Amino acid sequence: MKRTARSAAALVGVAALTLAACGDREESSTGSSDPSPSESASSSEPAQSNPDFKACIVSDSGGFDDKSFNQTSYAGLQNAADKLGIETGEVESNAPSEFADNIDAMVQEDCNSITTVGFLLGDATLAAAKKNPKIDFSIVDFAYEKAPQNLKGLVFNTAEPSFLAGYLAAGTSESGIVGTLGGAQIPSVTAFMDGFQLGIEKYNEDEGTDVQLIGWDKETQKGTFTNDFESKTKGQSAASEMITQGADIIFPVAGPAGLGALQAVQDADVKAIWVDTDGCVSAAEYCDVLLTSVMKGMDVAVEEAITASLDGNFSSELYTGTLENGGVGLAPYNELEGEIPAELDAKVQELKQQIIDGELKVQ
Amino acid sequence: MKLEMRGLTRRFGSFTANDHIDLTIEPGEIHCLLGENGAGKSTLMNMLYGLLEPTEGEILVDGEPADFDTPGDAIAAGIGMVHQHFMLVPVFTVAENVMLGREQTRGLGILDRGKAAELVRELSTRYKLAVDPTALVENLPVGVQQRVEIIKALANEAKVLILDEPTAVLTPQEIDELMDIMRALKKQGTSIVFITHKLREVKAVGDKITVIRRGKVVGTASPDAPEAELAEMMVGRAVNLTVGKEPPKVGKPVLEVNGVTVVDDRGTTVVRDVSFDARGGEVLGIAGVQGNGQTELIKSLLGIIRPDAGKVLLEGQDISRHGPKDSLEAGIGYIPEDRAHDGYVSSFSVRENLVLDLYRRNDFSRGAALKLDAIEKNAKARIEEFDIRTENMNSSLASLSGGNQQKVVVAREFSRPLKVLIASQPTRGVDVGSIEFIHKRIIEERDRGTAVIIVSTELDEIYALSDRIAVMYDGRIVGTVTPDIPREQIGLLMAGAHDGHETQAHETQGGAA
Amino acid sequence: MSDVSVQEPAKSPPPERKGEAREEGNRWAAYLPTIKTTVAAVVLALLIGALLIIFSTPRVIESLKYFFSYPWDFFKFAGIAVWDGYTALVKGSVGSWNSIERTLERAAPLICAGLGVSLAFRSGLFNIGAQGQMLAGAIAAGYVGFHFDFPPGLHLLLAAVAAIAAGAVWGGIAGWLKAATGAHEVISTIMLNYVARFLMIYLLGKELFQRPNSNDRLSPPPAESATFPQVFGVHTGVLLAFLAALGVWWLLERSTTGFEMRAVGANPSAAATAGMHVQRTYFLAMALAGALAGLAAVMQILGQQDSLTENVAGTVGFDAITVALLGRATTLGPVLGGLLFGALSSGGLAMQAAAGVPPELAQVLQALIVLFVAAPALVRGVLRVKAEGDGGTVLAKGWGG
């Protein structure tokens, strides 16, 4: 379904434009017979112009419109293109068996930098990096024990901001019960949930309360998972179940499936915390129930990797996004700002500083 | 209403099923359409009923050209059709079936069953069609179901009623009843197009006879024309209507059936303690109205269903636990009652169907591999020997006429040495020319010393072939007679009249009507 | 059908004697409408695809704004977009050895699984379970492939046999259920797909299947000794797909077992009456279909050297149904259908990478082709091709089973 979304949007666009099809052409769009229409259609003039440099990206099977990590990573590429004036290329994967081919297709397109998204592409990216030493590769959400010179892992310490989110949730919950659910029991998901739980525990310790977390237990590593990142229905029913049990803040870590959870939250008039991106931007229709979002700055990391590659100072050193380097963080409180006590916000900021300063470790 | 067809033509690809047919149905006449299977009668009627579009020609209703794109158009014009296979919903009542598609409601979409029942009652008294409107169709005998079809057509105010091979599924008694109904309808001014290939029936009720052969009208005749003449018109050559056979040279019993009992899936005992011998060189006919256990009996002889009690001995060997494979290999030849269902695979070629139960033999396979050459050679030989009319041996069985399909089945079963031949309805839906041929071959097989068992619901066939006749009623063999006794007597046995109790049971069944 | 020699029917020689050559010709002629319709379907889909490309290209849409001032821009940009898109499609599917290699590798699993679906269908069974059977095969191939240490060759053989056997077991379960209890294979295969999927997820959560020192749901890759050697960049497993097609053809058209399968598929009661063992045939057909799906998993795990993940089978098991449908349940059909799908998938990649066509479009194109092939009457209607005989309804009848 999501795959048709863009085409549909394009068609709607056509309809709108056809109605207005008597304007004048912009001079910039004449003359050019560039065969790459995928080039960023941004109207603002890029700060630099590097038409000889091509940055490319390969998604995993979620596709670039997953409102989650593929999309955010893709945004990083676009930001880089806007700022640096570089060429871009992109391929979406449908199945694991396509990964190697897809990366190879980007190699064939003479890309200088190739970003791959997700741990599933780990093997294929490593193989391609070894085969093409002149191309800089970066991979989101994957760390190699020993990476070749031209391959950089981009990982994120999401437990840190999740810790803050947990603290915030515990301080905001009226029922004393908060819930979380994951898309799958994989480290990149459970890291959020672990941090979230630690934040709640910290709040309980500080304030002497007994806020409960349902949907995850760090000790036993058992919890609620939709086992599906696509099914909004599953996300919705899991969240509804938690709301029935009394949870008034839900923390869905399940990509698009989490949108179903937000729907359940909105229906029940409780609150939620979004992940990966600022939910008030990527899922604005639910902004009224979002306390905040745990942002995983994949766009920032991807953009940095591309910039480094262009500038010739690419390194294979693992990038870890932290609160300190701004690779992860909490989104603004947006519409619900008024509902968060200044005291609590101050405490959250204090904890953040403690983490940055290394006084507090989230583990 | 006067119905005319002018130059009606229908082609399927290069094949012309109907070639410039002219036909006029006058009001209030019973017009018989006589022709062999595959002559194009059904195609013609399907055009008339809006199921097929004519390639050329036109249909006129009371002199006005009419265009029937769908059966709905035909019905609206006053044409009703009773198909060979009934279009009834078995779990609905008679009244519900009649009002299907023209549901009468009492506001709020509530079905007015009362009104429908009333309509059925009125029609059944007016045309003397005894039917209980509240009976479930699935519980009715075939003959009564057919009446429901007729009432359905009449409820749509049909002025011309097309009956497509209506007698094929009826007992002799039911056929007589149908004839009466047809006469009553005619008296009320309804015209009837009566499609058949049975000469006796045509002569009994027809006012006018049009004979169709190979898609063309070959002539018209009056009902008092001699049967042989009608048959000749239909087949295109002189036909021998009786089977010439020598008196049998009866040998010793080959197949002994002892106390066979079969209980069906629903728990009804359908074959009750049946015992008989089939002797070499003799034809044993099993007569009976359809549905009295013959089907299950012969299936249990081959082993398609296992008898629940009793024994079947082939030359003294118990084969009652055999499956079809072993029975066939032991020397039983089997021509099933419903050839399309059990006898051939319609999407398979003639060549393949001719070895459908022989491919396991060393003649046609070596290990896992089929011997294609041998299969082809066999097909050539059988096609020639049995005069199977097919474009070539690779044509699918579906493209053959009913008679030729049956010839394929018969040819296959006759192409290996047999000890017993079990043939059920060997000539059902088969054209006159093929009937003659198949009968001849069955007698030849008898004369070779094979024990032959013929199951047929058509008394003509039973009389023509049998040396002994066993009559089945309600799962039992109620009498074994010789073919020299009069038809009426066998008819009574078939109706269970030998036994007061069972006669009553039959009456109640039919009497629900 | 049209018996020409009708004058003296009793004596006339059977018309089939008029020559074998004509018979052969007829057989080809019978396929002709099918071929024509299929080609027409592809052309039609490409035409609609062209429209979609035009209207999903930003520059073309831009040019619409001033269409009345400079109409030529629109046509020029539209033309460029379509030309770029379709040349990329052709180049990306068959334009270079690299592309052909990719097409073949993507086609191979589809051919195998498609043959499985087709074989079951010929036996009267609607096998929706290729996906589950592939996953079962993948689990076996993967496990044997990464867990054991055997000499090259032997390791490959064992892993492949394990996968084929696992697929056969998975298919066989549905076949056995059908034969023994009458459970409808559509339902049981769908359910077994779920079982296989969650079994895979479960196993990937276990250390036994995970990479050392990792919690990701990702298995180690199969050992080098268990993978197919590459020749000219194509893994040699691809050959197996074509051999499998040949084997299935021989089985169905030349063997007694195949004869039984086809008879049971077309008319089970006639088959039973002719002494065939219908239930056993059902079981055998499903087990063989599963084995072929297992072979498809072999192509992916041991051929393309994929690690086990929960999506390792992608949508191959379901596309296989479409491939079999496109192949109209013949034996050559799934091969052609698989190659077409492989080419579209491979070419679709090039359309994205080289021409910037949205990836959805390549899939829409596939879907359109299948849609039009499945609705021959629609294609004939649109292109005003006169219906010849009843050739067009073969499919509908066939799948009505």
UniProtKB/TrEMBL annotation, chain B:
Domain called ABC transporter: residue spans: 3-239, 255-499
Domain of life: Bacteria
GO cellular component, one term: plasma membrane
Subcellular localization: Cell membrane
PROSITE patterns, per the entry: ABC_TRANSPORTER_1 (PS00211), ABC_TRANSPORTER_2 (PS50893)
Keywords: ATP-binding, Cell membrane, Membrane, Nucleotide-binding, Repeat, Translocase, Transport
InterPro entries linked: AAA+_ATPase (IPR003593), ABC_carbohydrate_import_ATPase (IPR050107), ABC_transporter-like_ATP-bd (IPR003439), ABC_transporter-like_CS (IPR017871), P-loop_NTPase (IPR027417)
Transmembrane segments: none
Primary localisation category: membrane
SUPFAM superfamilies linked: P-loop containing nucleoside triphosphate hydrolases (SSF52540)
Entry's Gene Ontology molecular function annotations: ATP binding; ATP hydrolysis activity
Membrane topology listed for this record: Peripheral membrane protein
Pfam families according to UniProt: ABC_tran
Xref: Gene3D superfamilies: P-loop containing nucleotide triphosphate hydrolases
PANTHER family: CARBOHYDRATE TRANSPORT ATP-BINDING PROTEIN MG119-RELATED (PTHR43790), GUANOSINE IMPORT ATP-BINDING PROTEIN NUPO (PTHR43790:SF4)
UniProt name for this protein: ABC transporter domain-containing protein
Biological source species: uncultured Nocardioidaceae bacterium
